[in-house]
Amino acid sequence: MQDVRDALMIARTSEGKLVRRPLSPHLQVYRWPVSMALSISHRVTGVGLALGTLLLTWWLVAAALGDRSFAAVQGFVGSPIGVILMLGWSASLIFHLFTGIRHLAWDIGRGFDDRAYRTTAMTVIVATAAATLIVWIVALVVW
Amino acid sequence: MTGSDTTPRISIRRSQLGRARGLGAARAGSAHWWAQRVSALALVPLSLWFIAGMIGLEGAPRAAVAAWLHGPVALVLLLCLIAASFWHMALGLTVVIEDYVHQEGARLTLVLGVRAASVLLALLCAVSALRLGL
């Protein structure tokens, strides 16, 4: 052992022999159960939303600066790329919100049994699709 | 690093406790964990309110955005959303960086960069919102 940080990776067996603690296997050995896909998507959408804050900042700053800069940001949001970004951003926000609520439920000790785990996973997926669709229908058609 | 099949050896002459010390205490980690949950909890109603607000402002001119923020309630809620979002973002990105970036210099640079960017973006958003609403 050369690095102090390795200290936590090395342990002693009951016979006093030094052993390296086992590492959990890497992602590629697993099949992709829905729970794992959701967990990773939660993180990926979180990073995506962090990038989306740049758009929010641009929008607010442009609105504060004046009509010309605001027209530029509105033009971008209305462009094909802008619409795709907004679609991804809204779906990510809704998904992250729903999986986040699932995480908060786990934090108070709810929903850990096998059935609840799967039911809530499927609920999150269906609810995300439905809510995103409703938001866009309301925004584009009804409003 | 030795492979998993070879018996590890310890070449640093320190006690087990001494070697584990300074690697980060559970005490410090719980503050981060707790802050992440508190900001998440605040963001549940705030995000729903924000989505509704954005639907209302879809395609609206700048004057409509200013009118939306002119009432104290909307302005205060938006400021809360800005604070909670960027706080939550900084905490979340820090965890992601710490999980995947193992080289110490790069990790520290990225974590500090995320902190700096979060504060700057949050202030830009907040000042813009105040300028529009006040």
Describe this structure in words.
- The complex is a heterodimer of chains A (143) and B (134).
- Chain A is mainly alpha-helical and 143 residues long.
- Chain A has one domain: Fumarate reductase/succinate dehydrogenase, transmembrane subunit (3 helical TM bundles of succinate and fumarate reductases).
- Chain A has helices spanning 34-65, 67-78, 80-107, 114-142; strands at 10-12, 18-20.
- The model of chain A has no long low-confidence stretch (mean pLDDT 89).
- Chain B has a single domain (26-133), classed as Fumarate reductase/succinate dehydrogenase, transmembrane subunit (3 helical TM bundles of succinate and fumarate reductases).
- Chain B has helices at residues 16-20, 26-56, 62-70, 72-100, 104-133.
- With 134 residues, chain B is mostly helical.
- The longest helix of chain B is centred in the first third of the chain and has 31 residues, at 26-56.
- Chain B has 5 helices and no strands.
- The chains are: A mainly alpha (143), B mainly alpha (134).
- At the A-B interface, strand 2, helix 1, helix 2, helix 3 and helix 4 of A face helix 1, helix 2, helix 3, helix 4 and helix 5 of B.
In quaternary terms, these chains amount to heterodimer
Biggest β-sheet description of chain B: none
User: What is the averaged pLDDT score of chain B?
Assistant: 87
Judging from the principal axes of the Cα atoms, what is the shape of chain A?
A: elongated
Structure in a nutshell:
The complex is a heterodimer of chains A (143) and B (134). Chain A has 143 residues and is mostly helical. In chain A, 71% of the residues lie in helices and 4% in strands.
